[in-house]
Amino acid sequence: MFPHAAAILAVWLLWVVIVPAIDSAVSSEDPTVAGDRLAVTESVSFTVPAGWNIDSGFLIDQRSASGSVPRVELTGGSVSFVVDADDFTGTADELLSQVDAVSLATNGSSVLAISSPPQPVTTDGGLTGVQIRFDTPRAAGSMATFVVGDKGIRVQVVGPPDQIASHSQEIADMIASFGTTEGDTK
Q1: This protein's superkingdom (predicted)?
Q2: Is residue 16 part of a domain?
Q3: What residues have CB less than 8 Å from 15, skipping those under 6 apart?
């Protein structure tokens, strides 16, 4: 009977002492440095200012084992900057409407109902799309959509109003920096 108790004690020590010690020794922080460009698709990327944390995503010279490009998730303080790309045929306006319809169906809320009217946006790299902004007492942010080739790209920024205000120039610069990696806007 004693060998079983020793095995149970060893497993308990592993999960209660050793795993938490390893977890606390490994940092989950992955801060960006000046000039970092993150991949959105095989051909679209954007520049991130120094100091934002990469929660998900790859720099343009990195790839996953499968070769796919994951969703980009960044945090700067309490601000979340998320970029999704998926197959889509249509316009940036249609993509924005589709994103809102999915949000309404799944969450019961429409971001278009509380936002500014969609405004055209053109990046420094020549991508054209639409952008909306929203501001409530608890959260503020924006959503921009672009269509590049057969890919729809959604950029969503959300955070407390004061944090959005303090990061507004960095957010605008990130959205403006979207472009094709090889310089082609088609």
Answers
A1: Bacteria
A2: no
A3: none
